[in-house]
Structures are given as structure tokens and as C-alpha cells.
Amino acid sequence: MDKIDVDTSKVLLARYADKETGQFEPAKVRHAFAALKIPIMKSELDAFIENSLIKGKNGISPTDIIEQAERRFKKEQVRKELLVRAFQEYDTEDDGEIDSDLLVYILTEIGSDTTCREDAEEQARSCLNSDTGRCSYVKLVNKWSADELIEEEAKSDDQF
């Protein structure tokens, strides 16, 4: 997927909006991003909600959410491309692995969801190949995919 489909997004978002105003209560905004399958950090979501409410509205419009989702989607695409390039550049043994300290540095520098060093170190440990002591790109991507699935399941459980 190269971009967010605005028409489909509006349909997906409609179930979370206030029926009378079409606006979103702050508590429902996370569900809106989950419906669009856009991962967003709590701090980023909180800032988005705060900035949207400052505009003097009683809620957050679907247009605001879609615009933020598009920005977040583009950011995720760039982050993944940078990670692929970093592995290609620093994988000196051409085995899909890089040094864990290097991965921690990359994760904190590319603006990933693991911008704090402790989170980046945890991510690096989770994809460590016990045979080589290096971090595997495949394990990292699989972990991210598994984390996204778990997060989606938790969000869908919250909806019902």
C-alpha cells in the first residue's frame, strides 16, 4: 500500500465518530488509528489529540485523523526503508545480520517507535541470533509484525 485511501478511511472511521456531530471524542481516536491500521505511539497520539482540541472544537474531525494517519503512514514507510538500507549497508557478512550496538544506534536515530535507548536495546535483544551474537533483520521484522498483530488483537478486543 502506497498511501491511505481517503474514501475507505472515512467509512472505517464512521463507526467511531459521534453520530450527531461526526466528530471524535479523544478516547475514540486510538480506535480510529487502529481501524486504519496505522501504528501510533501514545505520546504522538496524545500530542495529536491535544493539538486538534486546541483548535477550539468539541471533538476531532475525521479529516484531521486521516491527515495525521497519512503523515504517520509516510513516516513508517521512510523508517522501514531506512532500516532496510542500514542492514544492506552494515551487513558486512551478507547474512542478514548486524551488530546489536549498531542496531540500537540505528533504531534510536531513524525516529522509530523505539527512540529511547532502553526500548531500542530491548528490540535488539529480541532479534539476537544466539549462534552469532548479532541481530537478524528477519527476526526484527517478524517481531514487529507479531507485535502489530498482538496490538491489533488487543485493540479489537477493546472495541467489543
UniProtKB/TrEMBL annotation:
The protein, known as: EF-hand domain-containing protein
UniProt superkingdom: Eukaryota
Domain spans labelled EF-hand: 78-113
